[in-house]
Amino acid sequence: MAEVSEQEIRNLAMQHQELQKRAEMIQQQMSSIQMSTEDCVRAIVAIDELKNAKDGVETMLPIGSGSYIHAKLNKVDKVVVNVGAGISVEKTMDGAKETLVKRSEQLGKILEQMNASFGQIVQNLQAIEAKAAKMQAPQP
Amino acid sequence: MSNELPPQIQNQLAQLQQVQQQAQALAAQKGQMDSIKKESEMALEELGQLPDDAIIYRAVGELQIQSSKEETIAKLNEKNETLTLRLQSISKQEERIAKRFTQLQEQLEQSMGTQAQ
Hints:
The complex is a heterodimer.
Chain A: H1 2-50, E1 58-64, E2 67-72, E3 78-84, E4 87-92, H2 93-136
Antiparallel strand pairs in A: 1-2, 3-4
Chain B: H1 7-48, E1 56-60, E2 63-67, H2 69-116
Antiparallel strand pairs in B: 1-2
């Protein structure tokens, strides 16, 4: 009987380890999706800010390490948007914003789904922990 | 624990683990290719909604090269065909590995049964 319990505990430990790995993976994916959403929001804010700008507006181009070179914007009414697979498409300000808002919404939905999966995994982990604690508790 | 097992079973276990690792590596590769393919399909969908004279850029290394809609679609379709072929080949490899896994599992169960008697 004691041997069976030991085997069961070992099985539970393996399940726990496996679920923990999955939870960590989902967390990593969620943080990368969150970063993409923030990136999207930054681009939308930039489009909103540049909506009334005219050609030749002074700006600064980042060259890395918090350093910039002076530049003037050209074709400020157009935005080139990455549509995936290494392809970018020139769009009007409104068109680009629409694409980015849609993208941000899609990312939000994915994040919601992942959050639900993560919650489910956490519940399963807790159930395993409770079961293991019960099995290891001294029998009356 | 494994020190108590006969060498034959240890060997079978090692083989089983190796096959399992191969299956995991293949699944990861397949997942990666699937997502690349999905991304290409989504880009194709986006391109399909654009007018023929749309200004499109294709990433070539660090550069963005201007490209026509027709050329971009052709290149993406070509990429998708290659990905489909590679995915098919991975699926075949997965089938072979799954069979090998079942075979090894059965052999191991048999050996364990014999040892228990």
